[in-house]
Amino acid sequence: NRATSYVATAMIGVRKLRNLPAQAN
């Protein structure tokens, strides 16, 4: 389903955004 892929992409995107500040600091 596209909905499932969209949710999975959103989850990965949120994880990346949360990990970027941690790595920058």
Q: Can you characterise this structure?
A:
It comes from Salmonella enterica subsp. enterica serovar Newport str. CFSAN000835. This is DUF4060 family protein. InterPro entries: DUF4060. Pfam families: DUF4060. This protein has 25 residues and is mostly helical. It has one domain. 92% of the residues lie in helices and 0% in strands.
Count of β-strands: 0
- Give the overall shape: rod-shaped
List the total number of helices: 1
SSE run: H
Please state the average pLDDT score. Answer: 86
Largest sheet: none
Oligomer: single chain
Number of domains: 1
Strand content: under 5%
Query: What are the segments in which pLDDT stays under 50 over at least 5 consecutive residues?
Result: none
Class from secondary-structure proportions: mainly alpha
- Measured between the Cα atoms of the first and last residue, the distance is 37 Å
Share of helix, binned: over 70%
- Report the C-alpha radius of gyration, rounded: 11 Å
Protein name: DUF4060 family protein
Pfam families: DUF4060
InterPro entries: DUF4060
SSE topology sketch:
Layout: H1 2-24
Protein name: DUF4060 family protein
Organism: Salmonella enterica subsp. enterica serovar Newport str. CFSAN000835
Pfam families: DUF4060 (PF13269)
Brief synopsis:
The chain is an all-alpha fold. The protein has one helix at 2-24.
Which labels suit this protein?
25 residues, mainly alpha, DUF4060 family protein, 0% strand, 1 helix, single chain, DUF4060
